[in-house]
Amino acid sequence: MFPSYGRTPSIDLRFLASFEVECREGPRAGSPLDCKPMAPALSVLDLSPIPSGFTAGDALQNTLDLARHAEALGLRRYWLAEHHNAGSLACPAPEILIGQVAATTRSIRVGSGGIMLPNHTALKVAETFRVLHALFPGRIDLGLGRAPGTDPRTATILRRSREAVVTDEFPEQFADLVRYLDDDGPARTTFGGPIRAIPTNVPSPELWLLGSGEAGGALVAAEQGLGFAFAHHLNPDDSVRVLRRYREAFVPSSRRREPWAILALGVICAESDDEAEQLALSGDLSMVWFLQGIRDRPLPSVEEALAYRYEPHEEALRMPRGARVLVGSVARVREELGALVAASVADEVMVLTHVHDHAARKRSYDLVAEALAAR
Fold this sequence. Notes:
This protein has about 375 residues and is α/β, with parallel strands linked by helices. Helix content is about 45%, strand content about 15%. It has one domain (about 15-30, about 35-185, about 195-375): Luciferase-like domain (TIM Barrel). It has helices spanning about 15-25, 55-75, 95-105, 120-135, 150-160, 160-165, 170-180, 215-225, 240-250, 275-290, 300-305, 310-315, 330-345, 360-375; strands at about 40-45, 75-80, 110-115, 140-145, 205-210, 225-230, 260-270, 325-330, 350. The longest helix is centred in the C-terminal third of the chain and has 19 residues, at about 275-290. The protein starts with 12 loop residues before the first helix and ends with a helix.
């Protein structure tokens, strides 16, 4: 789910102000929105970026170390993404990393953000996550997306035909997956009977839908009574509207009695605004490369980004592309993220932080936790 590095210095706080008024004065009569004065839960979204000067193995070890750090901070969950044919990332198989992260931690929830269901068969996904949940009971999340997590040519290989890329079979796949996860009927006595995901008698992992829009993500999650994670860093203009619409449309289910909305976005937080802006230069350059189809270069260091000479056509790609990434000190992040959380009524914030220096990346999560706690 969701790699994007474009950013702008700040969120339009005037746009969010009208939503905040409702939270201060209470929801309108008849509104299902629940304005929460308490700080939202904080979680991690990790794409396992490979920093320049390091290997994929180093990046994966960074993932394990960051997961331990997140648990020590008391964060709620740690999700791994699925992306293919991008040499700057080390995350094509989140199901493998989930097991590794869960094994190196003790209590934090671990899951996929997400498994791109159309790239797989429902039976295989169900069996994989039943194994994970058997190994780590009560800790595994299965977040599902419908995008390919890659370019169209690679998607054709993953889905084995061009037709499969353009055909929306997600509803049928999702129904099959739910059936496999929930089926623990009597033991079969013949070669007939239903096909089952093994191991049997393993409770279903917590099921989530991911998305950056209303119809294909938020409303499906609401109708199914599932948690929903919105990719603000892919579609910052609609996050408030879509998350509130999800809450309004939510139908209680056996899986979840109340809605739970996750706001996923990029954040780079440092001791000062200037330091955070410096750290963000790596992602700025990486995004310019990505937009040109250059996806095999590792995440550059700040020094490499400062020394890079942008071509004229690349300068145009550096233009702000919406408030996908919040960059700043604790004070700035507290103000901008706090306004966004209040407006969207998000229950949880899931932060993606792409900086070259691993220590700075860990410190950013420390400071984001501080910013949210001080709201």
